[in-house]
Amino acid sequence: MRSLVRALRLLVSTSIRVAPVASLGCLAEPVGVLVALLQPWSLSLFIAGAAAANLQWMITAASVFVAQVALTRVLFMIGMSSRINQMERVGATFAAEIARITATIPTVDHLDDPRYLDQLQLLRERSGAVGLAINTMLNQLSSVVGVVGVLALAASADPRMLLVALAGVPTVLAGPIAARWRGRAEEASAEPGRLARALLRLGLDPEHYGEVRVFRLADGLRSRLRVASRAWRRPMVALARREAGLTTVVQVIFFGVAAIVLGLLVQDTLTGRGNLGDLTLALLLVTRLQGVSGQLRSVISEVADMTRTAGRYLWLLDAADEIAAEHPGRAEPPADPGRLVLNGVGYRYPGADRVALTGVDLDLAPGTVLAVVGENGAGKSTLVELITGLRTPSSGTIMVGGVALAELDLAAWRIRIGGAFQDHVRFELIVSEAVGIGDLPQRDDHRAVRAALVAGAAEQVVDALPAGPATQLGSAWPGGVDLSGGQWQRIAIARGLMRPAPLIRVLDEPTAALDAITEHQLFDRYAAAARAGRNTGTITILVTHRFSTVASADVIAVLDHGRLIEYGSHADLLAAGGHYAHLYELQARGYRP
Ligand SMILES: Nc1ncnc2c1ncn2[C@@H]1O[C@H](COP(=O)(O)OP(=O)(O)OP(=O)(O)O)[C@@H](O)[C@H]1O
After folding, report:
1. 3-class DSSP state for residue 127?
2. Is the ipTM of this complex over 0.90?
3. What is the pLDDT of residues 578-588, one digit of tens each?
4. What Pfam family is a match for this entry (predicted)?
5. Which domain holds residue 125?
6. DSSP conformation letters of 11-75
7. Nearest CA residue ID for atom 1, ligand 1
8. Using a 6 Å cutoff on CB, does residue 346 contact ligand 1?
């Protein structure tokens, strides 16, 4: 109940804050419902006037009828346009808020949790409907106003008409029942819905065309998509059937009772115990009574739907708060470079049965160039995500300049990091922007962008483009050009080198699309630049699984199955004749003529 009140309060306050005028305009509809009650009343007055040959009654009834038709139309039009306006603005506000909240969650661990992803999917799908909140509340008000008015009119026509009103109660009660069914159906279709969308993206996105065609995956994809779509729709189809059954039952009850009561009224009129005006009013009110009970029913289910969506939004807020509470740190990162110390650091992915990293100890002085090597799945990227604060260690501590990472404001910490990553983004912007956004304050500083391009060995790529750094990237845009995988990677590397003196610079296999010799040259360039600028104190961490490229690093950390198994300089590790020496020799042999 508390969460229902919280959800309703959120919906109403957001609607009034975001669209006050439109929210007020929505009031026109309930007023219109009141005015529309004059219609059956004027018709019954007209017929009673005709029966009693009273011209005055007939003229009054006709004037009231015309006036109420015109007024109702105007009020409904004002109400409807306000409703659409309000729905769009409030829906857009919720969609923007959802994007803001998900983007500001400081870590990424929750993105491995399918339950989180299902809830987020449902919330995104229904955020537009939340815009209707105020309107739905007002509809409810209109319905209540309408019900009271229609009941009063019905009782004035004949008290037995109240039995017909009572027969509308099952229709109203069907609302919350159907809303509960709908909630369950939505939950059941969330996961297959996500799967169907993922398969659709796989089949339609241009970057997948090649593999989908070469491996002739289209048929397999289509049949999987068919199965997933069926599983996605099945709960909704079953829901529609159950709802149709329920509606039939409640309507049979309503019209059964109405037929009996109307039969009695006709008999009374024929035998002179009732008058024609009251019979007309009763006849007109039967459909009204059915209308208001149906309306009440749909309002109840709409309110339930909306509070459920608002509940999911509140769940997201709570989840974001909970995750933020796990990172209460608000300390600013140290202004000056300091040691980066890892003490017994371990990590287990949510739901995984094996640890990805365990007991890692490292102590790096400012200015150190560290290479992290290891085979696929050794834990290199996990280590980088822990150091950048994207994930929280399951065990152990990470200290930066004497302050625990857990105590730092993670957003401020990440501003002090530079980096390029294996799964970099292909920002389809103007080249200088695609590089410049690596350090937003310097985005438009052409000299800084040029320096980053040179440091990332991307200047030749850019100079060869039709408009140099002013070239639009992405062939989907007018005048845009596409780049090769390696060229995109060089742009990403240059972006990662934009921040002038970060505390840590991470290069997580940013060179995977480059050939081994180019990677080697690039890393030598980083290492030389890092040494030349050692006075900035930046700690450089280069991740690679190519052992041959890392000889120029100060120290090399060798990871194997999540453990740090060797640590030292290239010469030390070769001399030790261990895992590093063995794999170095194996890979080096591959490059000998
Ligand atoms: N999101 C995830 N959920 C569960 N397990 C994961 C996830 N990401 C990685 N892992 C597991 O964690 C381990 C370490 O993965 P990580 O990506 O850190 O390896 P890596 O050394 O960077 O590998 P590569 O060289 O292939 O990039 C692997 O066993 C991997 O299967």
Report:
1. helix
2. yes
3. 888 888 887 76
4. ABC_tran
5. 2-325
6. HHHHHHHH-HHHHHHTTHHHHHHHHHTHHHHHHHHHHHHHHTT-HHHHHHHHHHHHHHHHHHHHH
7. 112
8. no
